[in-house]
Amino acid sequence: MDPTDRLRRVLARAALFGCVLMAAIIVTSAFLRLKSIGIGCDEWPQCYARVVVATPAAQSVLTPVAIARLLHRVSAMAVALLAAFVLMLTLARAARNATNLVLSVGLCLLTVVLAVVGRQTAGSVVPLVGLVNLAGGFAMLTMFWLLWLRNRPAASGTGAGPGRTALVYAACALIAVQAAIGALVSVSYSAFACEGLLGCGTGLSAVPAALTGFDPAQPLALDSANRVQAPPGAAELQLLHRITGLALAGALVLLGAWLARFSARRKLGICLVAAASAELGLGIAMVLGEFPLSAALLHNFAAASLLVVCVSIAAAAHAGMSS
Questions:
Q1: Cα separations (Å) of 179 from 130, 172, 248?
Q2: pLDDT for 162-208, tens place per residue?
Q3: Confidence (pTM)
Q4: What angle do CA 75, 76, 79 make, to 5 degrees?
Q5: Closest residue by Cα to residue 134 from 118, 157, 150
Q6: Per residue in 137-153, pLDDT tens?
Q7: How far is 51 from 33, CA to CA, in rounded Å?
Q8: Are 232 and 187 in contact (CB under 8 A)?
Q9: What is the mean pLDDT of the chain?
Q10: In principle, which of 23, 73, 118, 160 could form an S-S bond with 317, CB 3.0–4.6 Å?
Q11: Rounded to an integer, what is the distance from CA 157 to the centroid of its chain?
């Protein structure tokens, strides 16, 4: 085997292992975050949004939270070492190109950022902390996945179809934006800001004012029972997330069905339809079921999966244009 091919194969395997680690980090981080804000608590819903920081003695007990915290820390340390290893590989002449370097440097930088932010997460009532944590995890998963796509053994196929590459890129960007809005809903303790599926606030016309009036860098207020108060505009933020989620899921299902017409992209098209449908269904199940922990975790994981599928389609479309 050619030395260049051998090095790129090692890089691809390292990147794929990074995806597995990031999936573990995203799931455990979501579990810890959701448990910390009261999702799935025993005295639901009275215990929701109550700030409780576990004591060292409580953390030492072998509970699901303690196990998740341990797995999260081990995975985070492994990712830090792997990111450094990936950077070393991409600096080698055989694997050196602009895209690999940008992705590997980005992974190292995000690792440092998330390590710093992670220290502030426990007991934090600053929405920006949770938002950066979630967005950084999604970004690292995407970067590892792109590294794997670019360095795996070349697969045959065509692009997304004539004139549709920009549409795929736009879909990926919209998925990322929708995930960010969902993260804001979660970290702003807005689960009960709405009644029913669409009974939120004063309507979409109030969304711009709600967004401009919400500063995620400011700590949220606590009431006399030490419960976090949702910020003004939380209901409008929920409404925006739900309506755009419905619209985006419908558009992605149509895009996936269209891609499935092409034999080279049929599997990706089916995956896009499945991921978009699952994300929408889990979101509805969360609301109708009063936010069960299992549905919230799966909703978070489905969002990451949806982004990965869209990035795969975008990479295939780009490869089709370049070939």
A1: 13, 11, 11
A2: 446 788 899 999 999 999 999 888 888 888 888 767 667 666 667 77
A3: 0.90
A4: 85
A5: 118
A6: 999 999 999 999 999 88
A7: 12
A8: no
A9: 86
A10: 160
A11: 28
Dist CA 80 CA 82 (whole Å): 5
Q: What are the residue boundaries of the structural domains of the chain, listed by start?
A: 1-152, 155-323
Distance between CA atoms of residues 13 and 265, nearest Å: 23
H-type helices in the chain, by residue range?
3-36, 56-60, 64-91, 98-118, 127-151, 165-187, 207-212, 234-259, 266-288, 293-322
Retrieve residue 81's tokens: 């070492």
Token readout for 83 is 């990111």
CA angle, 12 then 19 then 15, to 5°: 20
Q: How many residues are present in the chain? A: 323
Query: How many other CB atoms are found less than 10 A from the CB of residue 196?
Result: 8
pLDDT in tens, 18-69: 999 999 999 999 999 888 888 888 888 788 887 766 555 555 567 898 999 9
Backbone torsions φ then ψ of 222, nearest 5 degrees? -115, 145
Phi, then psi, of 255 in degrees rounded to 5: -65, -45
Residue 309 in this model has a pLDDT that exceeds 50:
yes
Residue 53 CB coordination number (10 Å): 10
Report the interhelical angle of 293-322 vs 165-187 (nearest 10°): 160
